[in-house]
Design brief:
Elements: H1 10-17, H2 26-34, E1 41-45, H3 52-63, H4 70-73, H5 84-87, E2 92-97, H6 98-105, H7 111-126, H8 138-149, E3 153-158, H9 162-166, H10 171-185, E4 194-201, E5 207-208, E6 211-212, E7 218-220, H11 229-232, E8 234-235, H12 236-245, H13 250-257, E9 260-262, E10 265-268, H14 270-279, H15 288-299, H16 306-314, E11 319-320, H17 336-345, E12 350-352, E13 357-359, H18 363-372, H19 379-396, H20 400-413, H21 423-433, E14 445-446, E15 457-459, E16 471-478, H22 482-491, E17 505-513, E18 518-526, E19 533-535
Parallel strand pairs: 1-4, 1-7, 2-3, 3-4, 16-17
Antiparallel strand pairs: 5-6, 8-10, 9-10, 11-13, 12-13, 14-15, 15-16, 17-18, 18-19
Helix pairs in contact: 1-3, 6-7, 15-18, 16-21, 19-20, 20-21
Length: about 550
């Protein structure tokens, strides 16, 4: 039993000792199934605070023959599977945390040699009868051991990408590190000494000349999670169960922390959910300083359309993004899409794989963006928020003429950034126009566009404002009357979508005439005891 070779299970034991532990051992059923196959090389990238290290520690505790973990996994999901006993603590494991190794080595430049020498030293102690070749490469040593003893290895690397992220401008370090990984995993030689490899970090594997440096890995990311989606974060069912246990309002937790759409799975940030359950306080649990340092340089990059896209997403809209040009590093940015793609991998944006659109996932992350945009270079956002605030006030006052006027002005202001008469873009105009609402409301809930109209937008007040301001149900119609928009809200019973909301509700119908480029508005208060309306048209 060593630090890197055949480690013990104490790190995973700490996770199990915690008051809140959500069973993710079902992942092991998959790794057991693909062991010694072409799918046995796995890279699972996900943002920080999404349980990367716990997963790596879990796999090490399960596979390592340096410990006895039967009691730890007894009763867990993996214990009910066919191959559970066959692989439990039966394998030689190498478990590395590259971030820790980098610190212990003293510098990035020394990290690869540190890892190589430390692991080789432990291997020599573990396999004293094996005469290692003089090359002293880690891959060569593992091949020698397998040839002599028949033992194959499970390699688990946590924070695999730390040198790619933190040493983004140091090409020498990056090339040495990628060559080190290639020596372990590239080609077919690794199949002789490797049962399974599991890499986890924030970034997908670095691209070299548009191709992955290790293109034989199966990659699972925030863009393409596939069957790993339930293991990347907490599922909705798991969060609902925790809310029941800790007497927390599930809908409120959902507004604050839901939003990562991985395939068809709604995934929640585990750290945020655990924190709100333990503390009972709805707030952002990201590190304010760390977030600002991470986001601010990215969103200030001088790429056409980037700031407009950020403003759209801040308002609650989604933006189209091409994820294919991103080089999986922190420096090779060609356009706004590369910046947005990185923010998705970092967890600051979410991605709808089916629609190929990015968006801010929840209230927690929206607050982080608000902090990051409080900078003199975002003066246009501050001015725009002032316009938006006047629109919101007019809406709450049921001043339909002013609402139509403000919507038209904002639409014109963004005509250079989006196609003025594009139907989908008009829906973005609506959310952008109500940007100031984010102070009082959660991110608007939006349905998919249908036909020539747009499904409803639902603005729900944050609890602290629920007694002062109404919920908003807003409908936009293209080349139709505002009364038609209002009638659709009623005909489709959109009010039912906020049935649990007990405060006042405003029904807002907004129309746009493509020919005249004019907007109209009608607003009605929905209340069991009072209904009144005002409009700008016959």
């Amino acid at each position: 039993m060593g630090k890197f070779v055949n480690p013990d299970n104490t790190a995973f034991q700490v996770a199990l000792n915690s008051e809140i532990y959500v069973d993710k051992t079902g992942l092991i059923e998959y790794t057991n199934r693909v062991m010694d196959t072409n799918q046995a090389l796995i890279c699972n990238s996900r943002p920080r605070r999404f349980g990367k290290s716990i997963t790596a520690n879990m796999l090490a505790a399960y596979y390592s023959r340096g410990c006895n973990s039967k009691q730890l996994f007894e009763g867990k999901n993996i214990s009910k599977t066919k191959l559970y006993e066959e692989h439990l603590n039966k394998h030689d494991v190498i478990h590395l945390d590259v971030q820790w190794c980098c610190m212990d080595a003293g510098s990035a430049e020394k990290t690869v040699s540190y890892i190589t020498q430390k692991v080789l030293c432990e291997l020599k102690e573990e396999f004293p009868d094996v005469p290692f070749s003089k090359k002293n490469t880690l891959g060569g040593a593992l091949a020698d051991i397998t040839q002599k003893t028949g033992h194959k290895f499970v390699i688990i690397i946590d924070e695999w990408d730390v040198l790619i992220r933190d040493e983004a401008a140091n090409l020498k370090v990056q090339e040495e590190y990628i060559d080190f990984l290639r020596g372990l995993f590239k080609g077919t030689e690794h199949t002789k000494f490797l049962h399974l490899a599991y890499l986890t970090g924030i970034l997908p594997i670095k691209k070299v000349r548009t191709q992955s440096a290790l293109n034989n890995f199966e990659e699972y990311t925030m863009l393409t999670p596939a069957n790993f989606a339930p293991y990347i974060g907490f599922t909705e069912e798991e969060v609902r169960s925790l809310c029941e246990k800790y007497s927390m309002d599930f809908e409120k937790v959902k507004h604050w922390y839901d939003g990562y759409l991985l395939g068809n799975e709604h995934v929640y940030n585990p750290k945020a959910v655990v924190s709100v359950m333990m503390r009972g306080e709805y707030q952002s649990y990201w590190s304010k300083t760390g977030t600002y340092i991470s986001i601010q340089p990215l969103i200030n990059m001088n790429f056409d359309g980037l700031r407009t896209a950020i403003i759209q997403m801040l308002s609650g809209a989604s933006v189209e993004v091409d994820i294919n040009t991103f080089q999986n590093d922190m420096v090779s940015f060609q356009n706004k899409d590369d910046v947005i793609t990185l923010l998705i991998h970092m967890g600051y944006l979410a991605y709808d794989q089916r629609r190929r659109r990015a968006f801010i996932p929840n209230e927690e992350i929206r607050q982080e963006f608000v902090v990051a945009t409080k900078d003199r270079r975002w003066n246009e956002l501050i001015a725009f928020q002032r316009e938006s605030k006047e629109l919101l006030e007019a809406t709450l006052d049921m001043d339909c003429d002013t609402v139509a006027e403000k919507i038209e002005k904002i639409h014109t202001q963004f005509a250079s950034a989006i196609q003025y008469n594009d139907e989908n873009s008009l829906s973005s105009v609506l959310t952008i126009a109500y940007l100031s609402a984010m102070q009082y409301y959660f991110i608007p809930i939006r349905e998919m566009p249908t036909g020539r109209g747009f499904a409803d937008y639902v603005f729900l007040p944050k609890p602290e404002y629920a007694e002062e301001i109404p919920a908003l149900l807003v409908e936009l119609k293209w080349n139709k009357k505002a009364t038609t928009a209002l009638q659709q809200i009623k005909d489709k019973n959109y009010v039912q979508s906020v049935a649990d909301y007990t405060g006042n509700i405003l029904l807002v119908g907004i129309s746009y005439d493509k020919k005249s480029k004019e907007h109209a508005c009608i607003i009605e208060e929905y209340n069991t005891s009072l209904k009144k309306s005002k409009d700008t048209q016959d």
